[in-house]
Design goal:
about 210 residues; globular; alpha+beta; 5 strands
């Protein structure tokens, strides 16, 4: 499948916000957004006024980049979100949060969603004791996510597992520090998504 392979920081600059695509690096002074703000110079640059369509498209692009999803798959999530009962925008975000690569990242088993996606495709992650190599796999309530025996032998994975902290895990997940595994205890709700996202703009974009 096609995948964005250019500089990740370029995406953050385009969206004018931190998307945390590089994990811990985004919290340091090396972050491209932080460095740009520290550069002296004129700040009153004339910005092109976006149309209503442009605003909706930018919101869609931002969410796609946060979760590392390409257009065709993102559109499929939209169609699934409007089919199920509830608020379509919240359904869309819930489907994205329940992706296996996102769950691995949210549990702290990877520094970023990109790294989580890599761990899954390389066979380092299991769901309910079965190795899973599909990053887009939708986990369900009660599913247990853990590191496979193969993954436990990887130095990078070992260091991450040893530094696990349960206070950073969202409420809809639970982390067992002794077993080094996590579980989906409930479905994520809108307040669990911490990014400044206006999901209604995305629904309006696709509904035209």
């Amino acid at each position: 499948m096609a995948r964005y392979r250019d500089a990740s920081c370029r995406l953050c600059r385009r969206e004018k916000m931190k998307l945390f695509l590089k994990g811990e690096r985004c919290l340091t002074a090396k972050c491209a957004i932080t460095k740009k703000r520290e550069v002296p110079g004129p700040v009153n640059r004339k910005m092109k006024q976006l149309s209503e369509y442009g605003i909706q498209m930018r919101e869609k692009q931002k969410v796609k980049r946060i979760y590392g999803v390409l257009e065709k798959q993102f559109r499929n999530y939209y169609h699934e979100a409007i089919r199920v009962p509830g608020v379509s925008g919240e359904n869309l975000l819930r489907l994205l949060e329940l992706r296996l690569d996102n769950v691995v990242y949210r549990l702290g088993l990877a520094k970023s969603r990109a790294q989580a996606r890599q761990f899954v495709t390389h066979g380092f992650i299991s769901v309910n004791g079965k190795q899973m190599t599909i990053p887009s796999y939708g986990v369900k309530v009660g599913d247990k996510v853990s590191i496979t025996e193969r993954g436990k032998n990887i130095t990078e994975v070992k260091s991450l597992v040893e530094g696990l902290k349960s206070e950073y895990v969202p409420e809809w997940l639970s982390l067992d520090l002794s077993a080094k595994s996590g579980e989906v205890v409930t479905l994520p709700i809108r307040s669990h998504v911490e990014y400044p996202i206006n999901e209604q703009l995305i629904i309006e974009y696709y509904s035209k």
